[in-house]
Amino acid sequence: DGGITQSPKYLFRKEGQNVTLSCEQNLNHDAMYWYRQDPGQGLRLIYYSQIVNDFQKGDIAEGYSVSREKKESFPLTVTSAQKNPTAFYLCASKSGRRSYEQYFGPGTRLTVT
Amino acid sequence: AQSVTQLDSHVSVSEGTPVLLRCNYSSSYSPSLFWYVQHPNKGLQLLLKYTSAATLVKGINGFEAEFKKSETSFHLTKPSAHMSDAAEYFCVVSATGGGNKLTFGTGTQLKVEL
């Protein structure tokens, strides 16, 4: 089955630790995205990548980092510099510049205490 | 610049009655508009999309939306609500001149009661 997988579904970390969230897609999509979702705020764009080895900051990139070494994978690292890391993180992908529709993964809920 | 306003944060309907979720948008370019649905602790699923073709768009699960440029609206409707429709719904805008960036509304929580 084609789709986007995110792992793990739930993640718990202590404050001050970096943590990496996985996102893999087998849709052969060029572009991938990371969003953060907080209650009552909709989704906010963290980082996006339109091709391998290239990525751009979104609206709330501070305290996050990404890499795009393979077309299928776009991991997100939440660093200790992120002041409020507890949130639901969603990864998405789309096929190319002419396409508008993004396909979403099931999400990872990160809790930092 | 682009933005989306979902006019109701919560909507409650009885099963079998019509659903109306309201969305207004603002865009400097010709917009594409989407409605996504999210069930608890799940990813988002595309319900329908408008990309400058027919202004009345039909989606999955009996939902439809009408693009009204004069009113800058893209309201989501369904003639008869089902219990399984209970979820959060997001109106989303993307503009060709904006790098295809998606801007999400803050969501409308739909509750369906027996």
Summarize the structure.
With 113 residues, chain A is an all-beta fold. Chain A has strands spanning 4-7, 10-13, 19-25, 31-37, 43-51, 54-57, 64-66, 76-78, 87-94, 103-104, 108-112. In chain A, strands 2, 4, 5, 6, 9, 10 and 11 form a 7-stranded mixed sheet that branches. Chain A has a 4-stranded antiparallel sheet with strand order 1-3-8-7, with no helix packed on it.
Mean pLDDT of chain B: 91
Helix and strand succession of chain B?
EEEEEEEEEEEE
Helix share, percent of chain B: under 10%
Shape category of chain A: globular
Mean pLDDT of chain A equals 92
Rounded to an integer in angstroms, the radius of gyration calculated over CA atoms of chain B is 14 Å
In terms of DSSP E residues, the strand content of chain B is over 45%
The ordered string of helix (H) and strand (E) elements of chain A is EEEEEEEEEEE
- The gross shape of chain B turns out to be globular
Helix content bin of chain A: under 10%
Counting DSSP H or I runs of 4 or more residues, the number of helices of chain A is 0
Radius of gyration of chain A equals 13 Å
Report the structural category of chain A.
Answer: mainly beta
Question: How many DSSP E strands of chain B?
Answer: 12
Largest sheet of chain B: 6 strands, mixed
